[in-house]
Amino acid sequence: MKRRRLGHAGWGWTAFAGLVSFIYFFPVLWIVLTAFKAHTDALAIPPKWIFTPTLENFVSVFARAYIKGQTAVDTNFDVYFFNSIFIAGSSVLIALVIGTLAAYGFSRYPLRGNSTYLFIILTTRMLPPIVVIIPIFLMFRVSGLSGTYLGVILLYTAFNLPFTIWMMKSFFDELSPEVEDAARLDGSNGYRVFFRICMPQVKAGLAATAVFGLILTWNEFLFALLLTGVETRTVPVAMAQTIGGDIGVRWGLLAAIETLFLIPVVVVVYVLQNHLLRGVTFGTIRR
Amino acid sequence: MATQAQAATPGGLGQQLREHFSNWRLALVIAILAIPGSVALFPLETAFWVSFGAVILITATVVTRAWGRRPGPLLVAPALATLFVMNIFPLLWSLGLSFFHFRANRMSPPRFAGLDYFEKVISDPNVWDRLQTTAIVVVLTVGIQLIVGFLLALMFEREFPGRRILLMLVLTPMMLSFVAVGAFFRYYYEPTFGLLSQAVRLVTGEPYILLASPEGAIAGIVFADAWMWSPFVMLLVLAGLVSVPKYLYEAAEIDRASWWRRFRTITLPYIRGLLLLALLFRTIEAFKLFDVVFLITEGGPGTSTETIAVYLYRVSFQYFKTAESSALAYILIFIVIVLTNLYLYFVQQREKDEEAPA
After folding, report:
1. What is the three-class DSSP state of A79?
2. Fewest CB atoms within 10 A around its CB: which of A182, B51, B66, B156?
3. Do the chains contact at A101 and B75, CB–CB below 8 Å?
4. Pick the residue with more confidence: B355 or A148?
């Protein structure tokens, strides 16, 4: 089916859409503004639109200590950011390797009951995380994996796999089989067909899958809450604990953390706009 | 389908390895015998390495056997194994636990309980109350998402300068962390300096505590979740709108059909399928709603915003009623499986429709 070119509208429509988008984006914008406010400005009544921007919140995210009541407390957010990056990075990488192979298998060499396998795989991802975590929590406690990088990375690998498989399968399904058949007739073996013919064609898809996996893992909260220890804690958990603090919440600091946390997300949304639909539906809907 | 490729010639590496392991049955038997044998005979450390080697040997043997002949199972095996260990096996375990008296914070060994816990969960008024709360939240949030998402899609259907940038602004909430969104809205709902309270004070002169009443708290959660996920519906509807062939609109223009008529007879049939998918997908996702509730209200005031996921969290990790929570979890699993099945059915239905000549 040929795609329709979008109907054109002029700058008037831009103004209207701009206004709506601005209102829609406002909650994010306000947090970013709050991140640059001094503590008193962040709590000002009425809310301050014009203020002198300060970087003190960003400094205190990473500074080794800030004063809370009378005692100096280590924020540790450098560690948490490292953990988030390290855990998301390694689990996505492993899931990408295993998942791409599996997706290729499911796409090109269907097993008996292929769709059943795929259904079960998708279901594990659709289940509420709280349902999955109960037995995993016990399993991790018995095996001593609780609070270790190995355990968390393994868990997130399994968390990313269904997504990776479904995404990559949807990309492999789109390739035309004629090219591969031709290569086989010319004497290429399965290994060559996969690496020389298929992989170059799905490079963009691979990148999109990786980035989506990173964002999903980066944002994940419940698994991290229950299965990370003090050393392996990720940013979302630390953020939630900042709110649960005993003395009032330092909103400026929290806003600064959130701002740092959402920068990669905004960039990704801009770059990956064309793959977004497929990404958020786990590869089940292509267009 | 490229099934004929299964008979493809083995690779150079595969050929060499296969010759190496030509007597693969023998290798397999030795490896399998080695594991219990070493555990019985050697100290733990040595036994571990012997078993480890045996497992590698088995894997290598199976892999080289299957190489070239049956690549399908070989390709999917690592993924299925990982999923089995990290997802399927734990879930089976918790199914087992739901038939026993067991609490994760006590050391006493499990005692068989039969179907007691399932009965207990189903007859528990608390569970029904939480399911009702969840249903209210799901219906409200998915409804708002469908409406707002649809309107946003109509806005972005046209091409205009700066569309890509504005689209980015609107799509951003969807990719944010639930924790971040929860924290945002907690800040906005804050009674003294929160934006909402201050906006209301301009009108009524009194601060407004949204989260103090059950209705307000539910509204607060629904608003946050709907804000976050309306762009998702927008994306799906937009995909449907773009797929409408232009000649239909041209024909309608010649017939001087009204806007409403054009919408009803041309646009709607093309996006109906996607709207249904959006509805199902969002329902499944909203059903899981945990993080936002946990951050904004923690289930309060009282238990008025405790969704089933939050309740399950409390039962399993605060009261440590492990067996009961496993039974409840299985009821949720059943619901999600039904919904997922339905969703995939409609996805396939839509793919069939697309393949059929229009």
Report:
1. helix
2. A182
3. yes
4. A148
Report the residue count for chain B: 358
Band of residue B6 on the pLDDT scale cut at 50, 70, 90: very low
And the tokens for A255?
A: 């806003």
Query: For residue B66, what pLDDT band results from cuts at 50, 70 and 90?
Result: low
CB proximity list for B311: less than 8 A, separation 6 or greater: B126, B127, B130, B299, B303
Confidence of residue B107 (pLDDT cuts 50, 70, 90): low
Q: Which tokens belong to B161? A: 């300068």
Q: Which two tokens stand for residue B142?
A: 């998915």
Model pLDDT, residue A2: 40
Cα B82 to Cα A128, A156, B39, B76: the distances in Å are 19, 11, 25, 10
CA distances from A242 to A78, B183, B235 (A): 15, 10, 34
pLDDT of amino acid A65: 52
| Min Cα–Cα distance to chain A from B31, Å | 25
**Cβ(B174)–Cβ(A268) under 8 Å?**
no
* Distance (Å) from the alpha carbon of B212 to chain A's nearest alpha carbon: 18
Instruction: Report how far residue A168's alpha carbon sits from residue B220's, in angstroms, rounded to the nearest whole number.
Output: 37
Q: Is the backbone peptide bond immediately before A46 cis, with ω within 30 degrees of 0? A: yes
Q: What is the pLDDT of residues B303-314, one digit of tens each?
A: 888 889 999 998
Residue with tokens 């898809």: A205
How far apart CA B138 and CA B285 sit, in angstroms, is 9
List the domain range (segments joined by +) for residue A230. 77-280
Task: Give A235-260 as a DSSP string.
Answer: HHHHHHHHHT-SS---HHHHHHHHHH
Whether B2 has a pLDDT exceeding 50, the answer reads no
Residue A287 lies in a domain: no
The residue among A49, A73, A97 that closes a domain is A73
Asked whether the predicted pLDDT for residue B48 surpasses 80, the reply is: no
Residues of A in contact with B74 (CB under 8 A): 105
Q: Which amino acid is at B310?
A: V
Q: State how far residue A148 is from chain B, nearest Cα, in angstroms.
A: 15
Q: What pLDDT sits at residue A4?
A: 45
pLDDT tens digits for range B158-186: 888 888 888 888 988 888 888 888 888 88
In chain A, which residue ranges form alpha helices assigned H by DSSP?
11-35, 39-42, 56-62, 77-108, 114-126, 129-143, 149-174, 177-185, 190-192, 199-201, 203-219, 222-227, 235-243, 251-271, 276-280
User: Do A220 and A141 belong together in one domain?
Assistant: yes
Cβ contacts of A88 on chain B, cutoff 8 Å: none
Query: To probe the interface with B, which of A4, A130, A132, A212 has the most B CB atoms within 10 Å?
Result: A130
Class for the domain spanning B117-355? mainly alpha
* Same-domain pairing of A212 and A262: yes
Question: Is A1 part of any domain?
Answer: no
**pLDDT by residue (tens digit) across A32-84?**
888 888 777 777 777 777 777 777 778 777 765 555 555 556 667 888 888 99
Whether residues A82 and A170 share a domain: the answer is yes
The pLDDT of residue A1 is: 38
| ipTM given for this complex | 0.85
Domain boundary among A73, A101, A118: A73
pTM, rounded to two decimals? 0.82
Closest C-alpha among B191, B227, B194 to residue B211: B191
Query: Does the pLDDT value for residue B137 go beyond 90?
Result: yes
